[in-house]
Design goal:
alpha+beta, six-stranded antiparallel β-sheet, 4 helices
């Protein structure tokens, strides 16, 4: 039992060391103004997750939230969609949550589940169930500084 705990602790420390924290926290910033493309931190986040889990990534899309009128984080270039499914998608979801508050990640959505710092993980009822991709939204600080 002690050995298993040590392995889990070592793995957690190693994962956190792979990308250095930026002190951005996981506070939520709603999108309010479209930009002209992906934020630098979002590009680095997409690259980090693609190297780790594979899959295709998308960032920028000037549009409202699906089924709503509010601007999407994609319109500010602060959200990354990583096209993964099944267990690999769930591993990416869990990893994003585990590094969220150290790196400016404000929301993670996958397979009808959403995580935010204020709400924890719970059912997601948005019009897109996110069953074929993991959505990772950055706050403004994370959008500037993830992986910098």
């Amino acid at each position: 039992m002690k050995h298993g705990l040590f392995v889990l602790l070592f793995a957690a420390i190693f994962m956190l060391m792979e990308v250095e924290g930026n002190g951005c926290g996981c506070g939520y910033n709603y999108a309010n103004k479209a930009t002209d493309g992906p934020a630098p931190g979002a590009r680095r986040l997409a690259s980090y997750f693609k190297k780790r889990y594979g899959g295709r990534t998308e960032i920028y899309n000037n549009r409202p939230v699906r089924g709503g009128k509010n601007l999407s984080l994609h319109a500010e270039g602060r959200a990354v969609d990583i096209y993964l499914a099944g267990n690999n998608g769930r591993r990416a979801f869990d990893h994003a949550v585990s590094i969220a508050c150290a790196h400016g990640i404000q929301e993670v959505i996958f397979n009808r589940r959403i995580w935010t710092a204020n709400g924890g993980e719970h059912h997601y009822s948005g019009s897109n169930p996110h069953t074929d991709h993991v959505h990772i939204g950055l706050n403004r600080c994370g959008a500037r500084n993830f992986g910098a």
